[in-house]
Amino acid sequence: KQEVTQIPAALSVPEGENLVLNCSFTDSAIYNLQWFRQDPGKGLTSLLLIQSSQREQTSGRLNASLDKSSGRSTLYIAASQPGDSATYLCAVGPSNTPLVFGKGTRLSVIA
Amino acid sequence: GAGVSQSPSNKVTEKGKDVELRCDPISGHTALYWYRQSLGQGLEFLIYFQGNSAPDKSGLPSDRFSAERTGGSVSTLTIQRTQQEDSAVYLCASSLRQGPYNEQFFGPGTRLTVL
Question: Do the Cβ atoms of A32 and B33 come within 8 Å?
């Protein structure tokens, strides 16, 4: 059974810092990995999707990497801003079943 | 519509009552998913639909939960005889088609509180 772990569970940083969020998964037989953002009381916003054949994806200040063989992904946020404060969720897509989610990292960026 | 919509946004009900939650996927998306997010827990898969195929119900926690999708579009998740442990945020997502290369887009969720 696929399990997804996100470390740390919570993170607080001053504005302007670069930061890395970690995601690990137990079964490397995945087809994709998706990073989401969730604001309090809101649904999920897709940030980046990395297909299994890809090593990384970039969108603005966000960069996500994928290392299937080691079962790891990282989300790098450059020059963090208070508006980046949210919970970040990592989810992996196995071959024929819906996404399996981690419990998220709650990020606070302090002005 | 522009995105996935869900209704109601909030639902408070008494233990033992039935509730229906609605999801309108993005137009043209053939795959539709229901997930549940309980306090302090991650998102857990409930059920998904792909086109006209039989739905995958493997994530439904009990036979009190059921879902249908009419006309390949709107979906309704029904919880019968609600229990307090059913309190959670129920999220719906859709994708262009089911499969590993298709990004899932989520609705805002329905927050269910069972008193």
Answer: no
